[in-house]
Design goal:
Elements (H helix, E strand, L loop, with lengths): L4 H4 L8 E5 L3 H11 L4 E4 H6 L6 E4 L1 H17 L7 E5 L8 H4 L4 E4 L4 H42 L10 E8 L9 E8 L5 E8 L4 H20 L3 H15 L5 E9 L4 E7 L5 E3 L5 E3 L17 E4 L4 E6 L10 H14 L8 H9 L8 E8 L6 E6 L3 H17 L4 H21 L3 E9 L2 E7 L21 H9 L2 E6 L5 E6 L2
Parallel strand pairs: 1-2, 1-3, 3-4, 4-5
Antiparallel strand pairs: 6-15, 7-8, 8-9, 9-10, 10-13, 11-12, 11-14, 14-15, 16-17, 17-18, 18-20, 19-20
Helix pairs in contact: 6-7, 7-8, 11-12, 12-13
């Protein structure tokens, strides 16, 4: 039985087109008559002219010799991966060269029944149309990969922040396996108060959806960092957002904040590979492993803190860096050794140097690397006195005003700064009596005042007191309103750290 059109055609608007190319006109007529009705048949000169526009070719030996170039050219030009050629012959031709035999996909010896001819052609045409579908899917895949990669490149941080005394290096390389671009990212953000916020992570999945979600997660972290630069709060906000908006999403992430005043690194890890910290002695430490990935747990990841003085190196990366050759333990050791020996220092981009030391050729998975080289502390004025020492307070207040005057701060702004200083010290006297550390520095032409105490820790969110008649809380609210930026956070060893970016 000859195959019906619905059995072999994927395009409902036309029948499969078959070229019958034979020297013998009688044989040509018999084959054409057999196929007519099920297929669109072209023969003779018209068939040879239509070789590039047919779905299958039935041909004899002499015609194969004559049309070899046309068939080869058609196969090289057609978008389909497979243009079947059926050789109809009365017997084997030992004189046929090998390059000609390579053009033939099936051989039918005459005489051949209609049933056998129909089955053979139907099978070959099915492969032909499947190959066309493969090309279509491949084109869709390549288009989505290109769009996803372009979106990811656009969403990735282009220019890392410039922070005095800190060198930042980053590198990203898309995976080259037969899969779509993933959702790896790195990011760094310098806050006005001098702290450095960093994040790195990986959205499970691939393609445009993963790239879009990666950009969304990154922006949530940045948004929270501007208000509450707390790694735990950043990742908790992402986790809540994912569970509410993207219930099927899973993201591993590591967020960290480097405070150049307290020389500490606070971080939270949600299922991500741990960062590596090289201390001033050259020893490499693996930071704490994290909790469950974001989108999985209802709990916020834990907050950790480690010292990070000048001379330290912090390496954050995604798992593509150590899963290159599937030897995780060996790769981890090589990475720690590379960080300890700093063999990447001769590269302009130290993060790219680490990549080159770890991976040869193209990585299978996406790789994101962020390296933080803390070289030196910025110069800043520092005073220490007891909260009950009124004379010391007056002297420090006077010196702060003098330094502001030297920085070109106007008298009106200096008066405002003096009020802010007095309010912060008064708050310590009232709630955390004891030693007070005061620091004054300048970043981006803005003076920053730091007040550190050793009393009960607390965080501050700028808002009016719940009771409008209460005297408590008004002072800190005024500090917020009179400054460019103001926040208070707990110190890892106890006490609170108030940071005011003066106007």
């Amino acid at each position: 039985m000859i195959a019906r059109q619905s059995d072999v055609a994927t395009d409902a608007t036309r029948r499969p087109r078959i070229a019958v190319l034979m020297n013998n006109r009688v044989n040509t007529g018999l084959i054409a008559a057999t196929l007519d009705g099920a297929y669109e048949v072209v023969t003779g000169d018209a068939g040879e002219a239509a070789i590039e526009r047919v779905d299958l070719i039935v041909i004899d030996g002499p015609s194969l010799h004559r049309c070899r170039s046309a068939i080869s050219h058609a196969r090289s030009r057609q978008r389909a991966l497979y243009l079947p050629v059926v050789l109809l012959t009365e017997g084997d031709d030992p004189s046929m060269p090998e390059d000609l035999r390579s053009l033939v996909d099936d051989v039918l010896r005459r005489p051949v029944s209609k049933a056998e001819l129909g089955i053979r052609l139907r099978a070959l045409l099915r492969v032909r149309f499947l190959s066309r579908e493969v090309v279509r899917v491949r084109d869709l895949y390549e288009t989505e990969r290109a769009v996803a990669q372009r979106f990811q490149e656009a969403a990735m941080t282009k220019n890392l922040p410039s922070v005095p005394g800190i060198a930042l290096h980053a590198y990203y390389c898309a995976g080259h396996r037969e899969a779509l671009v993933g959702g790896d990212w790195y990011d760094a953000l310098a806050l006005d108060d001098g702290r450095l916020v960093m994040s790195i992570g990986d959205v499970c999945g691939s393609g445009l959806d993963a790239a879009v979600l990666m950009s969304h997660v990154r922006q949530v972290i940045r948004g929270v960092a501007h208000i509450h630069p707390d790694p735990q709060m950043m990742l908790d906000a992402v986790n809540r957002n994912l569970r509410a908006e993207y219930p099927d999403a899973i993201v591993t992430a590591l967020a960290a904040v480097l405070d150049p005043i307290t020389l500490t690194l606070e971080y939270a890890n949600a299922g991500h590979v741990p960062a590596l910290l090289r201390d001033v002695k050259g020893d490499v430490h693996t930071l704490q492993y994290g909790d469950l990935p974001l989108g999985v747990s209802t709990d916020a990841p834990r907050l950790f803190s480690v010292p990070m003085p000048p001379g330290s190196l912090l390496l954050m990366y995604t798992d593509g860096l150590t899963e290159f050759d599937r030897d995780l333990i060996g790769a981890q050791r090589r990475l720690e050794q590379a960080l300890a020996e700093k063999r990447f220092e001769d590269r302009d981009n130290a993060a790219e140097g680490i990549f080159a030391l770890m991976i040869t050729g193209a990585p299978l998975d996406d790789v994101a690397i962020l390296l933080v080289d803390y070289r030196a502390s910025a110069e800043r004025e520092r005073w220490t006195f007891r909260s009950d020492d009124v004379e010391a307070f007056a002297n420090v207040r006077s010196q702060v005003c003098e330094r502001l005057d030297l920085l070109g701060v106007s008298s009106a702004r200096s008066t405002t700064a003096e009020m802010i200083f007095a309010e912060l010290i008064g708050n310590v006297v009232r709630h955390a009596p004891g030693n007070i550390d005061v620091l004054l520095e300048t970043r981006n032409s803005k003076p920053i005042l730091h007040v550190l105490d050793r009393g009960p820790s607390f965080s501050y969110a700028p808002r009016l007191p719940t009771n409008p008649l209460s005297e408590n809380g008004r002072g800190l609210y005024l500090v917020k309103e009179l400054s460019h930026d103001f926040n208070v956070s707990p110190r890892p060893a106890g006490g609170s750290h108030a940071r005011v970016v003066l106007k």
